[in-house]
Every structure is written in C-alpha cells, then in structure tokens.
Amino acid sequence: MEIRLEEREFSNGDVYSGQLRGTLPHGKGKYAWSDGIIYEGDWEEGKISGKGKITWLSGAKYEGDFSGGYLHGFGTMTSPDGSVYSGSWRMNVRHGLGRKEYCNSDSYDGSWREGLQDGSGSYTWTNGNRFIGNWKKGKMSGRGVMSWGNGDLLLKLKWGKKVRFVVMGNMFCTELKIHRRYDLKGSTQGRFTEKNKIREKTTMKDLDLAYEFHMDKLLREALFKQILLDCSFLESLQIIDYSLLLGLHFRAPDQLNDILEPPNEMSDQESDSVASVEVGLPREPSIPPKGLLLVTHEPNSVNTAPGPHIRGSTLRAFAAGEKEVDLILPGTARLRVQLGVNMPAQAHHKLHQDQEESGTVELFEVYDVVVYMGMIDILQEYNMKKRMEHTCKSIQYDPMSISAIEPTLYAKRFTDFLLKVFPETA
After folding, report:
1. What pLDDT does 200 receive?
2. What are phi and psi of 266, to 5 degrees?
3. Which GO terms describe its molecular function (predicted)?
4. Which domains occur in the chain, in start order?
5. 67-110 per-position pLDDT tens digit
6. For residues 19 and 126, what is the distance between their CA atoms, to the nearest angstrom?
7. How many other CB atoms are there within 10 angstroms of residue 207's CB atom?
8. Beta strand pairing call for 116-124 and 3-9
9. Which tens digit of pLDDT belongs to each residue from 366-410?
10. What is the per-residue pLDDT for 353?
C-alpha cells in the first residue's frame, strides 16, 4: 500500500503530521495530543514503534526505543524534578540494566526490575558514601560493601559478620621510579632492616635512614604545616603507630655507594630508568648538582594530571618568587609540585668527620632527589592492649624508644624526628 505524507486534525483536537499507510500512521511522523503531549519519531501501522522522542506538558521527556506504543528497549527519561534515567525499559517501566541520577545528585547504577532496583547495583550518595551489592524491590538486601566518604568500608560476609576496613591510594604510583622507600615512626627499638634482606623494593625503617633532606623554604613550611595538623588530629582521636611513608627518586642512582645498599643488590633497571640524564655528583657540599629546576607552574605544560590519591593545590616555592611551581627534570619530564608529590630536595649523607687542628670538619655526599610521602597506618588506637604493651616493653627497653607510647608523646616524638630528617636550611 502506498505511503503518503499528510496532516490530519482530529475531532478531539489531536494533530498528526507525517507518513500514512492507508489511514494509519506509518513511517516518520509527529503526533500532538490536545493535552500537550508531543511524540515525534517512528510509527508502525498506527502504533508508536522504533526510535522516537516524547515530551509531556510537565517538562518530562523520553528519547529512545518504543514498541507497540510502549517505552520498550533502551532510552533516556528526564523527569520534571531533573532526575535522569538512562537504560533498559520494558512496557513503560525501568527493567534491566540502567543508571539513574537523582535530583539531589545521588546516583544508582545497576539492575532494575519492574521499576525498582533489583539485583546487583551501586548507589552513591552526594556525601561520598557508596553501597555496592545486592538489591531487592528497591532496597539494599543481601551481600554488599558499604563505603563512606572518609575512606571507611564495611563488608558484610556470608555468615553475617561485618568487617570494617579502609582502602588507601598508592602513593608510589608515580611518573618517576622510586629507588628507596622508608617507613618512619620516630621510634628506634627494632627500627632497622638487616642488610642481607634489603632488596630493590624493600621498605626500610628509621635507623636505616642515613640522609637529611634540604628543600625550598616554602615547600618545607607547607609540609610541616600539614604534618602538625595531621598529628594534632590523630592525637585528638588517641591514635598511635602511624608512619610517614617516604619514597625517594634519585637523579643518579648508579652512583649510590655501598652505604645505600649491600653489594650487588642494585637493579640494572634503576640505571636504565635515568639513562637520559648524565649528572656527575660532586663530593663538595658547597657545589650541589643542579639536576632539578623549579619553574613557574603552567597547567598546560605538565606531563600528567595528578592521580586520584593526590590532594591539594600546586605548591609555592621561595626560589620561584613565592609562585606556584612545576619541577623540571632536564631531559625527562615536567611535573606538578604538590604536597607530598614531586617535591624536590637535596639528600645530604654524612660520610665521616675529619679532625683538624682548628676543629671538626663534616664531609657529606649530596644527591638531588624527588620526594614522595604521606601518612599511613592511621587506625591504631591507644587502647588497653597498647597500654599493656607499653608497660611490658618499658621494663626491658627505654620507654621512649618503643612504638607504643601515649598519643601526645607519640605525636611529639614523631614531629621532632621529622624536623631532624627535614632540617631548616640556613
């Protein structure tokens, strides 16, 4: 039967304009109901079928698949309140996989059944809380993991037991290779690593650290401002046993000597990773190497965007006129300098002391390093178990040398130790 274009106005005030086969809409057409509803799209023998768009007088609209006059298939519905559902439909109701963004910015992504969340799905609240798990008739039901915006997670196991845990970002997921890593608490009892156990990725401890790190005045101020705030907060919660996880990228790792690691433990890959930079390390501390440069920050010039674990704005440096800065590694990269990320420093390693008639002369090796760091292990309360540990170990060891001490003393010892590790430059 021939298909023709025509416009028809019905006695009830409805209007159709488009293709007809006989007396029925068929093909492309637009239908406007007298109550303000408008549909424009595909028709099949008088029924809405195929692709199309329908709008209601309330402001709601749907665009997607239709079948036999129903919302059926895949489509997007925008409600008058601004909420948006995009996903599968069956006979005018949400059914199958889909995502809904609510007017308050909450969102659900997962399975639907007869218009309700049902099956596996993830619901995210605007405050950052999130549930991933099973749903039944629009409610959380069965197994799942609940995470809070502060990083806490709650896992409900099969037999009903609830386990809380925290997932933290990997601070060493960096553009530069980490050559040395340290876990620093400020305590000394047992805080060393046996030399024969040191490997390329071994995390060493306080007594293994043989360096002082000298950095730009403003970078150091920003670092200790945050450390003091963190320690004050943890102290208020009666938390101890936290550490500063410190990662070092050396600009010339091939020149590290036996003081840094046991013989034959240096990985060949380490020297390969910086093969493009040939910087000699002078022995005189008064002539430090210039393998790192701080320049004014240019957002479009940095090599990569910050990772998801990185917080805070670009730092300012005294050496750049108190402007936000990028770190340039000649021949390698240009990186954004942020708190605990891509922070340049000079690592001073004391070799020995020469005795002369005029006094003692201290000799150092100086290395250019890029520093990465952050606070870890922040969940241990100073509870009865830790109090007992402190009492027992204090009988055998110096009470200030052990890790388990009262939170106020722990915070002070921790910051005092880091002030020595990152001394103020004259």
Report:
1. 82
2. -70, 130
3. 1-phosphatidylinositol-4-phosphate 5-kinase activity; ATP binding
4. 1-79 (2.20.110.10), 81-167 (2.20.110.10), 180-421 (3.30.810.10)
5. 999 999 999 999 999 999 999 999 999 999 999 999 999 999 99
6. 47
7. 13
8. unpaired
9. 899 999 999 999 989 999 999 999 999 999 999 999 999 999 999
10. 57
Backbone φ/ψ region at 45: left (φ over 0), alpha (ψ -120 to 50), beta: left
Q: What is the pTM of this model?
A: 0.58
Structure tokens at 1: 């039967």
The percentage of the chain sitting over the pLDDT mark of 70, rounded to a whole number, equals 83
Decide the pairing of beta strands 203-204 and 180-184.
parallel
Q: Are 335 and 175 in contact (CB under 8 A)?
A: yes
The letter for the amino acid at 254 is D
Cα 398 to Cα 417: distance, rounded to the nearest angstrom: 17
Query: No. of H helices and E strands in the chain?
Result: 4, 25
* Dihedral Cα 250, 255, 261, 266, nearest 10 deg: 90
In 218-331 the beta strands, taken as DSSP E runs, fall at 243-250, 293-296, 316-317, 323-329
